[in-house]
Amino acid sequence: MPEHRRYPELLRSRSYQACKQVSRYLDDYRLDGVIGLFPVVGDAVGQGFNAVYLYVAAVKLRSWRLSLVVLCNGLIDTVIGLIPFLGAVLDFFYQANKRNLALIEGFATGDAEVVREVNRRALVSLGLIALLLVSAYWLAKLAWAVLMYLWQSATGLF
């Protein structure tokens, strides 16, 4: 059976509804950017919400290709948010949750263009995930060091 078959029952499931809610709150209401204002921790929490999309892609749709692309989108959002100072601003504009929701909807309904995009991006996403994980590690260390420097500078004033 082809991997891109239709999943009409998914669009009525609670997990899909959770994806829609996460997208609405984090991207439509820009809460992802607000959460991202808390260095390192906010970005980790934002990535935690990506688990809903990964669950739907991996368990409900059973697509490793879609799972890779969804994970990659979430990691891009996390790495952008980890960039000191600039990341807090950019986090308001990169909407990974909307992208992931659109991919899941298109994949579930058998949209040929979305399925083609997922298949095209899957292997590239695999390599990009490795690069993003390394980048996230070093950016988290940098962000933490900047945060500690600012804290020590601020507490040294008193």
Automatic annotation (TrEMBL):
The keyword Nucleotidyltransferase does not apply. The lineage of its organism: Bacteria, Pseudomonadati, Pseudomonadota, Betaproteobacteria, Neisseriales. This is DUF4112 domain-containing protein. It comes from the Bacteria. Keywords: Membrane, Transmembrane, Transmembrane helix. The chain crosses the membrane at residues 34-56, 68-94, 126-151. InterPro entries: DUF4112.
